[in-house]
Amino acid sequence: MTNAGTSTSTPFTQRLRQAQRASDSALCVGLDIDPSRMPVGIAPRRQGLVRFLRGIIESTADLVCAYKPNLAFFEALGAEGWSILHEVLLSIPDGLITIADGKRGDIGSTAERYAAAVFQELNFDAITVNPYQGADSIEPYLADQTRGAFILCKTSNPGSMDFQELLCRFADTEAPLFEIVARKAVALDVLGNVGLVVGATYPEQLARVRALAPHQPILIPGVGTQGGDAAESIRKGAASDGTLAIVNVSRQVLYASSDSNWETIARSEARGLRDLMRNDQAECFEGKSAG
Amino acid sequence: MTNAGTSTSTPFTQRLRQAQRASDSALCVGLDIDPSRMPVGIAPRRQGLVRFLRGIIESTADLVCAYKPNLAFFEALGAEGWSILHEVLLSIPDGLITIADGKRGDIGSTAERYAAAVFQELNFDAITVNPYQGADSIEPYLADQTRGAFILCKTSNPGSMDFQELLCRFADTEAPLFEIVARKAVALDVLGNVGLVVGATYPEQLARVRALAPHQPILIPGVGTQGGDAAESIRKGAASDGTLAIVNVSRQVLYASSDSNWETIARSEARGLRDLMRNDQAECFEGKSAG
Fold first, then answer.
1. For residue range B148-179, what is the model confidence (pLDDT) as tens digits?
2. Which residues of B touch A32 (CB under 8 A)?
3. Is A105 within 8 Å of chain B by CB?
4. What is the pLDDT of residue A285?
5. B225-256 residue pLDDT tens
6. Distance (Å, rounded) from C-alpha B59 to C-alpha B115?
7. In B201-245, which residue ranges form alpha helices assigned H by DSSP?
8. pLDDT, tens digit, for every residue of B96-114?
9. Using the beta-carbon criterion (under 8 Å), do B159 and A136 form an inter-chain contact?
10. Which candidate in B68, B103, B236, B288 is catalytic?
11. Number of domains chain A is built from
């Protein structure tokens, strides 16, 4: 999606900041399509699924800065999944950011191949990537400064305690693995297109990552069904100018109602979340100015 | 792929052992389809790509224990990729193991969705998964004991030094992250269907992982183009009975020749690798018996 007011070479982080200012929103809606949860009147087949996601987009496009389709949900639809995704992406207005949530991690040639699929074939603005395989598995996603990569750092699930919190030797000190990932991400951010993923369910770790990465976007999943708090995510996750925290909500918006009024209710949920974060952001910003 | 001589409830690791004994081979051919590298006479379009991979399978099926399609290469083909993969999979003979190389890592509900796509929709026997998000991102792939998950442990690329080798505090001691991943994998292996991925480019680490995980399959990429040694991989990676090391080779077999004799040359490459590992395995086994 190209932003009408953006140069074709504007770095991803700057494009995101513009999208957040234009929309006055930190909200990202996660497009996690689940055929078993379609509302009344929507058939869980190709045209129904497209109709549903387009309805969600039309009802929320003026309330969000970004959409994040989770690729696993589309892949689960089989051969049709990719073309459903393609069709849905075409209905997202210019100026909004699109994030392919694939959590990829693979080495050079494979990563290049995957970057081509996501950035060229599907024209996504950004992708989520897994850091386990190291810098050379991330760099292929950073070659085009206008496209971004969000590196998994501290994820929202309980299993994020298993490895991400292990204390590791680093330089002359010791730090949990997720902090070392955050430092490495900042070091990789030469072109202004590296972000991080930190779950809303771990607000202290979110504050710590923001401190380590003051100028990078942070994608924050885990609000809603998983128990994270949207307003606290903005307080802990926003950069000093109030932008660069992207709070993702999926099921709470998509499946807010299974009745025929699903579009109205989805819009109302999204508006409530946007306003909650906007108010909190204003307070937070005033507080910082006063202090 | 169901194995004719296997009960429908045989655990994945046992099925793999049977496939390796029946084929007398530790070789896995990686189906990394690349339209830009098709041999003469093969058009880089749907039917050509299917024809090429079916040709590779027909030429090598009696020389291998497994095939491993790298999903990123199929996704890069766009909407057609998934159905090309589906068509190719149908030509793999029963009794051989199929591994979906997707290196996935996602939390519960998404992982479940992805497991459904790979195990039910495409009927793969196993998948590669990324451990960064912890146990709850791996467990959904382990629910069916007949299907396996290979957990990335020490990968073949240079970037595997960045995080996988970090010294972490663990219990009362210190160990590199990849060793902690290996220990966790063994702990998760309740049903006999957990494997590990260790690159042939790091033979010492491969020996260390085999010592930590004596009964688990190890998938070994990085032989050939990346510089790993097939025979050494078997010496360091096989279990005490000589099985459970799976050595993957992709480009060295697939793109061995771009002339019209590509099938013959691919077969010859595969046979050479299979024999090299078989001879080495025999020597290694004799050595162990004598010692």
1. 999 999 999 999 999 999 999 988 889 999 99
2. 110
3. yes
4. 55
5. 788 999 999 999 999 999 999 999 999 999 99
6. 30
7. 203-212, 230-237
8. 999 999 998 888 778 888 8
9. yes
10. B103
11. 1
Question: Can A184 be counted among the known catalytic residues?
Answer: no
- Who among A34, A106, A181 is closest to B103 (CB)? A106
Is the confidence at residue A211, as pLDDT, over 70? yes
Who's near A15: CB < 8 A, 6+ residues apart? Answer: A3, A6, A97, A125, A146
In a domain, B242, yes or no: yes
Residue A3 counted as domain residue: no
Chain B residue with minimum CA distance to A114: B72
Q: B236: closest CA among B250, B251, B247, B248?
A: B247
Label residue A171 left, alpha or beta by phi (over 0 means left) and psi (-120 to 50 means alpha).
Answer: left
pLDDT given for residue B222 in this prediction:
92
> Would you state the structure tokens that stand for residue B283, as one six-digit string?
């020597």
d(CA A285, nearest CA chain B) in Å = 33
Closest chain B C-alpha to A264 CA, distance in angstroms: 26
Complex-level ipTM beyond the 0.90 threshold: yes
| N-terminal to C-terminal alpha carbon distance within chain B | 39
State phi, psi for A181 to the nearest 5 degrees.
-60, -40
d(CA B16, CA B109): 28
Amino acid making up residue A86: H
Q: What is the domain range of residue A87?
A: 12-290
* Residues whose CB is less than 8 angstroms from the CB of residue A111 and which lie 6 or more positions away in sequence, other chains included: A104, A137, A138, A139, A140, A141, B72
Distance (Å) from the C-alpha of residue A283 to the closest C-alpha of chain B?
Answer: 33
Instruction: State the CATH number of the domain containing residue B139.
Output: 3.20.20.70
Do residue B181 and residue A163 have CB atoms under 8 angstroms apart?
yes
Residue B56 phi/psi, 5-degree rounding, is -65, -45
Q: Measured between alpha carbons, how far is A155 from A137 in angstroms, rounded to an integer?
A: 19
Is A186's Cβ below 8 Å from some Cβ in B?
Answer: no
Cβ(B238)–Cβ(B288) below 8 Å: no
Identify the helix (H) or strand (E) that includes residue B157: none
Decide the pairing of beta strands B66-69 and B97-104: parallel
- Tens-digit pLDDT profile for residues A111-170: 888 898 899 989 999 999 999 999 999 999 999 999 999 999 999 999 999 999 999 998
Contact A277, A247 (CB under 8 A): yes
pLDDT at residue A249, as a whole number: 96
- The CB-side HSE value for B25 (13 A sphere, CA atoms) comes to 24
Q: Is residue A2 part of a domain?
A: no
Start-to-end C-alpha separation, chain A: 39
Residues 74-103 on B with a CB inside 8 Å of A are 75-79, 81-83, 86, 103
Question: Which chain B residues are Cβ-neighbours of A188 within 8 angstroms?
Answer: none
In a domain, A6, yes or no: no
Of B192, B190, B149, nearest in space to B11 by CA: B192
Cα A152 to Cα A53, A157, A164, B276, B281: the distances in Å are: 26, 12, 10, 40, 40
pTM over 0.90: yes
